[in-house]
Amino acid sequence: MRRRVLIPLLVLGLVAVCAILVPTGSAIADARTQQLQLQRTGAVEQVVQRARAVLGGTGSPATLQRYLERVHSTYGEAVLVVDGSGERLAEAGGIPRDAATERAVTAALRGLPQWTLPTVLPWSPDSALVAQPIATASSAAEGAVVLRVDQASAKRDVLSGWILAGVVGAALLVALLLASNLWTRWVIRPVLALDAATRAVSEHRGFDAAAVTGPPELRRLAASFERMAGEVEDALEQQRGLVADASHQLRNPLAAIRLRIDGLPRDDPESRSEADAVEGDLDRLERTVDRMLVLAEAEHRASSEPSRSPDRVCCTVSAASLVDPYRSALADSGIDVLASGSDAELPFRRGDLEEIVEILVDNARKYAGPGARVRVEVRESPAELLVADSGAGLAETELARVGTRFWRSETHRALPGTGLGYAIVEQLARANDAVVEVSRAPEGGLLARVRVVGA
């Protein structure tokens, strides 16, 4: 999120700095060009005055030549003076009479000064020609002065000015980057705290989202979220505690009822039948209470232990070792067992894995029916446990309801059970960073896949 905020700020800052630097660079080049032109204008005017004296017969050509040599030694620039016919009067520095020089001389002899220097840029030519006509009293040009202006120093000055402006612009960008980074970090710090808080809530860890700094509105939002998460966690904890306490408190009354029933007379068949029916109901009720206690404990562990812990508890098991304790019971029910796969290391607590297998195998024993086959498979990559059977299975509309507490298929209502088995499996899987997926098995019955997330 910080990048999404910083990038537009930096783009706008870059545009603003460029909008300042481009006119600044142009102004630096224009100012240096004007300075160069003004400096050379004064020097050429001095040459023009001396050349006018020579052409008027009052000056000496030797004096003009010495002045031209002094100009050349001062500026390092070549200068040429011609008369009205274009013949050389004096020269210093050696200006070649090429096409560019001839054009400048011709224009000056026509009374058109050539003083328009192009803007000096770092990539401009090292020299440029300027020409000034030598006018008489009648305003007619009797000669011309041509000066080859050296632009190397001006180019260096322009480049230095541009570099300085670029350094200042880069410093502004760096300052903008630092200020934007600090400001953005301050603004989105509560948002990042909220993100960390939501992860902590999902992983059942503690957090403190209200202690961060930032805009007051976002700080209030973080504090509200922390209060809401605490209230939700308290409500869930109270709900789990109520289930556990209720299940635990029911044990003593159930035991007392069973003792009273055991003391009832069973002399006649009708009394014995009634007593047996009540004992059957008590057995089912005690089984339900026991499973509710197991479910409450599994929910507590799934909710209180941090998920996706980097230090996973691993165990090495095989499908055969997990299903061996139940082979006898399965065989008594007429169910064949197929345990495939070698030893595998799973990021699972062994006790939880054994309890999951017990519940799934017991469900297959009760609901698959005699003559069915149960397949148990353990895989290391990806880490998962599979239990499939070849029984009648469930309808497609019923598969989505597997795991709902106390839900049982209409076809299994007459069979013993509490409807809490798959709910317990899901909570035990959550406690080990795993998920439970129930689908139709290739054999025709149910396929329960317990898959470790992120292993």
TrEMBL record:
Pfam families documented for this protein: HAMP, HATPase_c, HisKA
Keywords: Kinase, Membrane, Phosphoprotein, Transferase, Transmembrane, Transmembrane helix, Two-component regulatory system
Localization: Cell membrane
MF annotations from Gene Ontology: kinase activity
Domain HAMP: 185-237
Transmembrane stretches, start-end: 159-179
Catalytic activity: ATP + protein L-histidine = ADP + protein N-phospho-L-histidine
Record-annotated Histidine kinase domain positions: 245-455
Principal localisation: membrane
Name this polypeptide is given: histidine kinase
Highest classification ranks of the organism: Bacteria, Bacillati, Actinomycetota, Actinomycetes, Micrococcales
